[in-house]
Every structure is written in structure tokens, then in C-alpha cells.
Amino acid sequence: MKHDIICIGTALVDSIIRGFDPEPVSATGYRAESASLNVGGEAVNVGLAAAKLGASTGILCFLGTDCAGDLILQTLMDNGVDTAAIVRTPDHPTPVTTMFVNGDGSRKSITNGAHRYNFHPEEHPEAFTDARALILGSLFRAPFNDPGIIHSVLTAAKQAGQIVFADTKLPNFKVLGLEDIKDSLPLIDYITPNEDEAKYFSGKEDPEAMADVFLEAGVKNVIIKLGAKGCFFRSRDKRIALDACNISVVDATGAGDNLIAGFASEILRGATVEDALKFGNVCGAICTTAVGASTALKNREQVLMLVNAQ
């Protein structure tokens, strides 16, 4: 196989405003603690983290031929992610998300029409099947808000013998639920919703009950990311609950993506599910200690030091 991991999904630039003061200082002026531009999107966040952790990583995503796209491309290349499969076109701009981050690290985001562009990864199976694992960022968001695209990509992945990890997002421009992709769910080895997403798609409140809905739909393993409460793993024969690491949170943007990258990279190294989950949990925690999804995590040695300290 050419790579350990291929990531498919959203690539964008996050304009992160931290500590926004809603009290105006002039007729049209406001202040904030800080403002920064950071590459983002689930595919980018996971790809960068996996590469930093030592996994051979490639990415299939869409970028416009604009300065935001240039920034993402250069950042990926600088961190050793294979960008050969990226689709670029002048017809659609690279999405830019404005994010307001609170003092406790919680956040709200503003999307726009550029996030709706639905490129077609299913037309390029050669670009994503030559890897041991496939990670879908943004299941239920473009391009994975089309049941046909989802099924085509996952079918090709399983025919190639890949382990399939699928992260989820709440629907925005096009609403889908589990019933809409029921034929694709049994093709997913690990699904990784956060707590709000798991509640939305399952209709349940308790993590164990949420996970059971996904398992009953055919998914083999479920990881529910619980933010400050840690994470919860469930399969047919295993249940693992981990507390969050005791750290000072600056910005939670991308924490779940870093968790997935850490978990997947350790699974590919041959780790047990429990050890991989502990590793991924620490990756997510490290991510929250700086502004931006790809700022704080540096390498595998950094993570192992904190794993051992835990």
C-alpha cells in the first residue's frame, strides 16, 4: 500500500476570533483578545495530525484556486501530507469559516455557501483505495451528504480491504439521517460522532444507548467524543469509558479530529483498542492547548510522554 491513511472530506480556512467582546468601542468597531487564520476542515485536521504522528498520509479534498487554497496546500506539503489527489478549480472558492472561541474553549462557527460544494471522490477510487485505512471527515456534510457518493466510496474502500473510519457532522445545507444511508453503515468499521451528533442521529441521551443505535444499524465500533467528559467506546463485546485529561483548554477546535488521527494511527501500529483510545484521547487534549486545530500537536513522542504521565 502507498499510504497508511487517506483522508477524504472538508478542507477550509478557519478565521478564529478568541475572546470576542460584544460591547462596541465605536459605531462599527469591536475588540477581541486575538484573531488568527488557521487551516482546518476535518480531512485537513486529521491528515496533518496523522502525518505528525508518523503515519504515511494522503488527502483527497477540494480547494479553490485562491489564497485560502494556497495556504492549505502549502501547510499540508510542509507537514509531509501527500497532496497529489487534491482537486482544485477556479469555479468554486475554498471555504472560509469564521469561529468565535470563548474563554473556556467552546466555540460557535459561521459557514457560507462555499461549504456546499460537493466534489466527487467516488470518481477517483485510485486516489483513495491505495492505503491501509480510509478516514471520512464530515459524514453528512459535503461531499458526504449524498447517499450515492457515500455508498460508492465505502464500497470501493471495502473491496480494497481498507479499514474505514467515519467522522460525523450535524447536517447543515442538506439534511440526512441514519436511515438515509442504511446500506452504507455496515461498511463502516469505526464511527466517531461527538455527543451532540450522537444525540441527533440516535435520538438517545445516554452514550451507551446512543452507541447501541449505531451498532444495531450495522456499524462495527462506535467512539463518542464527549468533550470535557472524555470519550466512550462501544462494540458488540467491549465497553470503554475514558475521562478527559486534566489540562487547561484554550481552544477545542479540531480536538475530535486529533483524537481520531491518534486512534487510527495506533490501531494501524497494532495497538489494542484500549491503548489506541488512550493515545487518541491524549491527542485530542493536546490539541486544545493552543488556538487552531493543528497548532499544539507536534509528534508521537510528545503524546507518549503525556500518556505515560496520565
Tally of helical runs: 9
Q: Give me the CATH fold name.
A: UDP-N-acetylmuramoyl-L-alanine:D-glutamate ligase
Order of helices and strands: EEEHEHEEEHEHEEHHEEEHHH
The CATH class is identified as Alpha Beta
Oligomer classification: single chain
What count of structural domains?
1
Shape category: globular
Q: Tell me how many strands there are.
A: 13
**CATH homologous superfamily grouping:** Ribokinase
The low-pLDDT segments are none
Structural class: alpha/beta
Mean pLDDT: 94
- Estimate what percentage of residues fall within beta strands: 15-25%
Question: How many angstroms does the end-to-end distance come to?
Answer: 34 Å
CA-based gyration radius: 18 Å
List the helices and strands and how they pair.
Layout lengths: L2 E7 L2 E7 L15 E7 L1 H11 L4 E8 L2 H12 L8 E3 L6 E6 L5 E4 L14 H4 L2 E9 L7 H13 L3 E6 L21 E3 L2 H8 L4 H10 L4 E5 L5 E5 L3 E4 L12 H14 L4 H15 L12 H10 L1
Parallel strand pairs: 1-4, 1-8, 2-6, 4-5, 8-9, 9-10, 10-11
Antiparallel strand pairs: 2-3, 6-7, 11-12, 12-13
Helix pairs in contact: 1-7, 5-6, 7-8, 8-9
Written description of the protein model:
This protein has 310 residues and is an alpha/beta fold. The chain contains 9 helices and 13 strands. The protein has helices at 42-52, 67-78, 125-128, 147-159, 195-202, 207-216, 255-268, 273-287, 300-309, and strands spanning 3-9, 12-18, 34-40, 57-64, 87-89, 96-101, 107-110, 131-139, 163-168, 190-192, 221-225, 231-235, 239-242. The strands form 2 sheets. Strands 5-4-1-8-9-10-11-12-13 form a 9-stranded mixed β-sheet, with helices on both faces.
